Amino acid sequence: MPSIRGNVRVAFEFSLPSVCGNVRVAFEFTLGPLRLQEAFVASEASVFMNQPPPHMSRPSIIIKLILGLLWTITHLAISFLNLWSHLIYSLECYLISSGLLRKYQNLHLGRLKCLAIVVDSKEAKSTVKVKQLLCWLSSMGVKYVCLYDIEGVLKRSFEPAVNVSRDRTAGEHFGIGANIKDLHRSQREMVIDCLSGSDGKEGIAKAASLLCSTYFNGDTHGDGKRKPAFTEADMASALKAVGCGGPEPDLLLMYGPARCHLGFPAWRLRYTEITYMGPLKSMKYGAIVKALYNFSKKHQNYVLQIRYTN
Amino acid sequence: MLFSHHSPAATSQLLAPSRRTLLLPLPCPRAGATSAAAPAPAAEAALLPGGLRAESLPRHVAVVMDGNSRWARARGLPSAAGHEAGRRALEEVVRLSRAWGVRALTAFAFSHENWSRPKVEVEFLMGQFERAIRESVAEFLREGIRLRVIGDSSRLPVSLQKTAREAEEATQSNSQLDLTLAISYSGRRDIVQACRNLAQKVHDKLLKPEDIDESLFADELETSHANELPDYPDLLIRTSGELRLSNFLLWQSAYAELFFTDTLWPDFGEADYFEALVSFQSRDRRFGVRKL
Question: Which intervals of the chain form a coiled coil (chain B) (predicted)?
Answer without folding.
Answer: none
